[in-house]
UniProtKB/TrEMBL annotation:
Pfam families: PMT_2. Residues 544-565 are annotated as: Disordered. It is a multi-pass membrane protein. This is Glycosyltransferase family 39 protein. The chain crosses the membrane at residues 101-134, 172-201, 213-234, 298-316, 323-342, 348-368, 375-395. Keywords: Cell membrane, Glycosyltransferase, Membrane, Transferase, Transmembrane, Transmembrane helix. It is an enzyme of class 2 (transferase).
Length: 565
């Protein structure tokens, strides 16, 4: 056991080093420490999700209230937590990159403990290592600061507490499991799905207190959700929170049509999203839009069905192992049910993948020490080969690529590089305005972050539902469009960026009060618009600082979809 603990510590240290590669150039610049092989050029820029979460975290610290002052269709906990790194380390790229690391380390430790509990030290060590590399896979956007890392921490904590309490006579582990699952649900609603697995498992648990255990599980879940609702009510955001989380969230799932050229439903869960022209990624086609999520860890995913069946149905299995298998199936369902299939959603099953693979490997190695049957030998060899294959892919496609190149190659993220440069340029020039505010009709939220600019409306992010119904009647969108236009007229932002073709009211407002900036080519209303009264000062600005290398915003960088939310 001591060796397994030492291995866990080694994996935790490795994970910090491994994830830090994303912002290694910043570390090198600040400390002179060169601990990575190709940490050249700038660090990887923030994508639209990271930037809007960071912006909202800063606004929360400044006194704004979620849903009342900032709209969002997801529950509040992720945003509340996103404020912590900004409070501790400032409003910076490095703070956002550091943010998920403690949660990932804690998840690794829990995954290790579950593996040790269910299959011994070998399984625990392997599970920890597998989750470390799976959760950093750049093809899954795992090396970023996605909310899925928070969801996994809370959800895996709930699984660990269920395993802990299974053979005990105490109710507190189940109450805490419910509370942890509630916390995951407060990050994204879909995280509640393992509740069905837990209730079913407890209902058939051969003890007299199974109904009591279900009750304590529900109590923990309910208390956590009620506590968050109470905070929002006290803040005066109860009604707006209901509209955003429940009504708007439901409409996002039911009223948004698939993107043009999207794959059919039966294959979309496997291929992810096609590019705007409908071309699928390799091996189904060839596109540079978004690279297939499976390319970074496909050997481990390929092994998962057989290992999942082993953990669930082998003669040597146990109720706690079946609980792990059920949790993994529920996590896979969390990817499928929203119907959006963005790469970072596939982070959600990765703790389960690590566990079922490691448990199967532990069983195979144990059997080899005894009878040495061919099935166990084949299983052990296959899992070792899958682990080595995925490690090879990660080294080739992650550690041997310059950090900024990661976002361009694997995430369709040349747009983020351009938006970082443009945002910094806006930050240089914003001093020509008395009250520099920015409104974005699109998903180009890095402009808020890198330009250090505030919004002109509580509607900060243009999701697909708002985009699709901005110029036609919808019970939720029509009032929002009216509110956006009222905000723009009342606060008259200095800058407006149109990443989508503006709806008629916005187009008229732009042509009446703004001129298109030469910084970004304009066509069909797209591009950067500057208030007429300060247009000359903005365009001819020659103040302090150095302009970043702006490239033309075109194609997906200007009008295409961002990487999902």
């Amino acid at each position: 056991m001591r060796k397994s603990i030492l291995l866990l510590i080694a994996v935790l240290i490795f994970d910090v080093w491994y994830r830090a590669y994303t912002f290694a150039p910043t570390v090198v610049e600040a400390t002179g420490l060169r601990a990575w092989p190709t940490a050249t050029g700038p660090s990887e820029p923030l994508d639209c999700d990271e930037a809007i979460y960071a912006h909202m975290g800063r606004r929360i610290l400044a006194g704004d209230v979620l849903y009342r002052d900032l709209t969002e269709n997801k529950p509040p906990l992720g945003y509340w937590l996103y404020a912590t790194p900004i409070a501790l380390f400032g409003y910076s790229e490095t703070a956002i990159r550091l943010f998920p690391i403690p949660y990932i380390l804690a998840t690794i430790a829990i995954v290790w403990w579950i593996g040790v509990s269910l299959s011994g030290p070998v399984a625990g060590g392997l599970a920890a290592f597998l989750y470390a590399i799976l959760s950093t896979d750049p093809y899954l956007f795992g090396n970023g600061s996605n909310l899925e890392h928070l969801m996994n921490f809370f959800s895996v904590a709930s699984l660990g507490l269920m395993v802990l309490g299974w053979d005990r006579g105490n109710a507190w582990p189940f109450a805490l499991a419910g509370a942890a699952l509630g916390a995951a649900t407060l990050v994204k609603q879909v995280a509640v799905l393992p509740l069905a697995v837990y209730v079913a498992a407890l209902a058939i648990r051969p003890t007299r207190d199974r109904i009591k255990a279900v009750g304590w599980l529900g109590l923990g879940l309910g208390f956590t959700l009620a506590a968050a609702a109470g905070v929002l009510l006290v803040q005066g955001a109860g009604t707006s929170a209901y509209d955003d989380i429940v009504r708007f969230g439901r409409a996002m799932a039911t009223d948004v049509a698939p993107e043009p050229g999207a794959p059919t439903a039966w294959i979309r869960w496997l291929t992810g999203n096609a590019d705007p022209q409908g071309t699928l990624p390799w091996p189904f086609g060839k596109t540079d839009y978004l690279v297939w999520w499976g390319r970074g860890s496909w050997p481990l995913w390929l092994m998962t069905p057989a290992c999942l069946a082993h953990v669930a149905f082998a003669p040597t299995t146990s109720p706690k192992r079946r609980l792990v298998a059920g949790w993994t199936v529920a996590a896979i369902a969390e990817v499928v049910l929203p119907g959006m299939y963005w790469p970072h959603y596939y982070l959600l099953p990765t703790p389960g993948l690590a566990l079922v693979l490691a448990i199967t490997a532990g069983d195979s190695f144990a059997a080899l020490g005894g009878r040495g049957r061919i099935v166990e030998l084949a299983g052990a060899v296959a899992i070792v080969a899958a682990t080595l294959g995925t490690t090879f892919l990660q080294v080739r496609d992650y550690l041997l690529r310059p950090p900024q190149d990661l976002t361009v190659r694997y995430k369709g993220g040349g747009q983020w590089v351009v938006l970082r440069a443009l945002g910094k340029e806006l930050g240089r020039r914003k001093g020509v305005f008395d009250d520099p505010r920015l409104y974005i009709w699109g998903w180009q939220s890095p402009l808020f972050f890198y330009g250090q600019l505030d919004g002109a409306s509580r509607h900060l992010f243009t999701d697909n539902l708002l985009r699709d119904y901005a110029d036609r009647d919808h019970p939720l969108i029509t009032p929002r469009v009216a509110e956006i236009m009222a905000d723009l007229r009342a606060k008259r932002p200095a800058l407006i960026f149109a990443g989508y073709p503006p709806f008629p009211a916005l187009r008229s407002f732009l042509f009446e009060n703004y001129l298109p900036s030469r910084l970004v080519p304009s066509a069909n209303g797209l591009g950067l618009w500057v208030a007429k009264d300060r247009y000359a000062a903005f365009e001819n600005f020659d103040g302090p600082g150095t302009a970043g290398p702006l490239r033309e915003l075109s194609g997906p960088a200007r009008g295409g979809p961002g990487p999902g939310r």
